[in-house]
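Render this sequence as a predicted structure.
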Amino acid sequence: MVSLTVNGVATEVDAEPATPLLWVLREHLKLTGTKFGCGMGQCGACTVHVDGAATYACLTPVSAAVDKQITTIEGLSEETDHPLQKAWIDLEVAQCGYCQSGQIMRAASLLARNARPNRQEIIDTMSANLCRCGTYPMIIEAIEQAAGGDADD
């Protein structure tokens, strides 16, 4: 058994220590907002927070998450009213939507450590996540909105 704290709730799962955190979240805990994209840490669809840092859940063995705070898209905001989630909806960012939970989680990690990033900081941070639909301009605009305005400076 592996003990984890996910979205503020302590839980135990029967998983091998090397099992990717992604599969523990999706299969054991039924938190399916975290998506499987590439399985190689190249797309970011599986991005979650581990102790506040954006982390590829597909590359993180569950054993590395013990005694750490794990936050998934489901735990970002109980009422789905995080400023990023509101901006995503307001600006209709998603097209297919598959990558969007990972995009939002990476952006939330950025805003947690830098409440007013400039446009280049947003671009640099978000380059770790891919969007097959190419909604990058809308993603940047949503992050700017969630940060409280235009980040052109």
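Summary. The chain has a mean pLDDT of 95. The CA atoms of residues 48 and 113 lie 15 Å apart.
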